[in-house]
Design a protein that fits this description.
The structure holds 2 protein chains of 2 kinds. Chain A is α+β, with helices and mostly antiparallel strands. In chain A, about 45% of the residues lie in helices and about 15% in strands. Chain A has 2 domains: about 60 residues, Orthogonal Bundle (Arc Repressor Mutant, subunit A), CATH 1.10.10; about 80 residues, Glutaredoxin (3-Layer(aba) Sandwich), CATH 3.40.30. In chain A, a hairpin with a 2-residue loop joins strand 4 and strand 5. In chain A, helix 1 packs antiparallel against helix 2, helix 2 crosses helix 3 and helix 3 crosses helix 4. In chain B, helix 13 packs across helix 16. In chain B, the strands form 10 sheets. Chain B has a 7-stranded mixed beta sheet, with helices on both faces. A 6-stranded mixed barrel of chain B has the order 29-33-30-32-31-36. The mean pLDDT of chain B is about 90. In chain B, a hairpin with a 3-residue loop joins strand 22 and strand 23. At the A-B interface, helix 4 of A face strand 7 of B.
Amino acid sequence: MLNERVVIEINRIKSKYHDAQSSLLPALYVVQREYGWLSPDAVAAVGDVLNVPRTTVKGVATFYSMFRHKPMGRHLIQLCTNVACMIMGAERLVDILKTRYGLEPNSTTDDGRFSLVVMECIGACATAPAMLVDTDFYDNLTEERIADILENYK
Amino acid sequence: MITVTINGKKIQLEKPVTILKAASMAGIKIPTLCHHEALESYGGCRLCLVEIEKMPRLQTSCTQYVADGMVVWTETERVVEARKAMLEFLLINHPLDCPYCDKAGECELQDLVVKYGPSTGRFAEGKRTHPESYDDPIIVRNMDRCILCARCVRMCDKVQCASDISITNRSSKSFVEPFSGGRYNCEYCGNCLTVCPVGAIMSRMHKHAYRPWLIEKEVDTVCSFCGVGCSVVLQVRGNSIVRAVPKTGKGLNKGLLCNRGRFGYDYVSSPVRLDSPLIRRDGKLQRATWSEAFIYIAGELKRIKETYGGSSIAGIASGRCTNEDNYVFQKFMRVVLGSNNIDSAAGFAYAPAQKFFERIFGQGVTANSIHGISNSDGILVIGGDPTSVNPVLGLQIRSAHQKNIPVVTIGYMPGLKRFATNRLIPSPFAETALLAALVSELKSKRRLSDEKAAFARDINTIIENIPPVSLNEAGDVCRISPSDINNTVDAISNMTNPSIIIGRDILQRSEGHTNLLLLAALIYLLNGRIYLLSELPNEQGLVDMGCLPDMLPGVRPLAVDSFRRRYDEFFGVEVASEPGMSIVEMIDGANSNKIKALYVMCEDIVFNIPNSRYVKEALSKSELLVVQDIFMTETAQLADVVLPSLSWAEKEGSYTNLERRMQMLKKAVDGKGMEDWQAIAEISRMLGFDMNYRSPKDVMAEIARVSPLHKDIAYDDIVGDGFMWPYKGEPLRHGMSIEGIDIPDAKSLLKISDNDKIYAGMENPLFYSENLSRNSSALSSISPEPYARIGKALATKLSIIDGDYVNISADAGSIELSARVDSDLPENIVLIPNNFGDKGIFNVMNWKINPVIKSFVLDCTEVVIKKIKSAAEEVLA
């Protein structure tokens, strides 16, 4: 299931920790980076490589919101709609994504370009509204700015 | 000394415990939901909050330890108010479907809400919903009801150590599920059911069948499946068992059960139970009355005894029958029919192993407490997976691993995979070389004891004479790297008093007797305690009651005149001094017409011995085959007379478990058969020998007089789980002579198996227990399909994947099964269980006997595997 490179990397991570369970989170990151999401098979495979029960891996993987359990688009938009961002118009941005790209929260565009996850606070209240596209951070968003930014992600 | 005051009551404690514990010791009950005595403190439900003077906030009594001078109040207004609030929070999501929920009446949440309120909730929003899961054949999950106390998950993680369920997702969306999200892929111990305080995890077997308050009686008895002998409570309504539950904290199993004990009881009410005696007339088994059957059997036995002599009659006793049944059976054979041809399934491995160790070390050497395993300083497991043969004993090993006690496993043991510090999987049937290497290495690392005792001298002589085997030699034969073996040697040589757990696989080899000798050497060098895995609930009882061809009750050798004389005097007949035939010799004897009559008590020899075809042929040659059983087994189908007997839940008597602990069976329901001892006593009477027992109690009274081991035992003394070896009896303390034990030569220690050949091996059964599990719809539903376990290397070579159908053929026959691929299994072996009528291992296994152990061997069958259909094709078809 996991390719050889990933298995080697997981084993390397495993060797850094006293017990296998401690290497669970970094190992899951490696798999998500490689495949874009954590399929049930991948979760099982991580358990097998680390010799940690599969169900334990599943429990951890589903606990943290940064792990994704269905296939994602090429780029992941994480948009904050918590209080500060909401007051500064984040919900309008959600509408724009819907009208311009057909992108609903927790879904992926038909062309597989974007996925949208609506986040709780990402710690940028002073410069709200804010979002992450993949690992890039953007704040002081407006309707025009969000369109320009997304043009850079094909 | 610590003094605490709880609700005004002064409590003195030696050492600090939690407030909850201290209160319960003083008889003060503090309500809990997430706490369970089998589990560690969790502090999740906040219901055990108490007020502690000088502490500003309420504290959870399950996590707070007492301190000297502490003053605690458990039911103040503030505490009660807090509990009420906690319950209101729980009821936000917990549905109020009590009228429909099976748990109502024994639901801990319901009881608490009745006591503390609230009577109404203020939460107006909707409840979290999650559809009830019926994906599993046995366990139904209703996660609407789950209160996330995590008792089930902690039980699965920390006690069963299976980690097959976990809490997934988080906060209000979290719930408990197995990996698949639907069907469980676990050991089905059902211990999660025991601990669930609400109706979130329930058994499907009795869903909506009754209410807890409709249970008419609860019967404390012993489980009928394996040699551990767990305490189990049968809950009875009308004349049927509605549920088997463990007693929390009680019995040697301390409230734990395995899948067989918990769900397997339904064989008792199987519709295919025998309900009337049958006599073969015109080639067909036809209904008859009891007296017709008895007259027929007595007449035939009399004729055969007079024509051919007593030694032409053979009897097979049963590890599923009580001590009393088995005692009466061997007495009937020896005294009434004049035959020493008595044996049972214990003769396959358990009895020979025990006999060998007792011969060297003295009687009772295998009678060790199961709880000792997790307290020893090392564990060596060889010859069978304890977690599947004796699951509750297996848990002791897992628990030892959690305490960082080194666990060494030799052989393929999937259940201990994550729990072994050193894991050696030798190539098939090559354990002998590995054992020899371990003995050679330990011999140099550990000085032989200079003890003067006779047994020490004997075993020292044996060990000195065992030819040395080097790590490299053993590594070559076993295909294990010598450094792995060396690491194992290091691990075990540090153990001072390890538990050595021995399964039957190691004996059922052409070199089984050599393995035994090497094991004895190893046990002596390591100062080990022996545990013999036992598949039958009364396997030890068979041995102790004298159901062996060469032993009298009390395990006294028949060959010793003084023991035999005592027996003769008691019964007024002379018992033959010649040992009888073992079970495999009986079958050969029937085949060569030496055995004319076979009396089989609750043992399915056709099903349980390799090469079913040969056994069938042999049995059909006998002039009389009498079978007592609860089901129409493969053996019963060949019988001339079949007598229905009573199942374990329908009769009384005692079982002796593998630690030689005696425990009582209690009658729970009425059955249609007759107790085994009673049927035999009736036939005996017709043959002119009165056996005037009114009940098993009378039989036990006689056992107490005949067997030196059971001297002065009173039937009524056997209560609960406390009746331990050596009772008040007189074990043979001294070891017996080692004369006649052959020391193996170097060649036999280093037999190399052919790499190109594939051998058939026997799969250890977790969900299987011969005819009982076959007739339990619950156990059959967990693993309904026959399968063959194939190593990954072999599977890749033959391009077989999980679920593909394969044909496995051998000289004895061929079978078609689905494949299960396992990466840990060596390349040239395929494991097949024996639970599926004509698709079991014994349909392809050859008939071969180890003449020293006098049992069949399992390392004699070469097979050819062919893929016939892929899993995908099967789905389409």
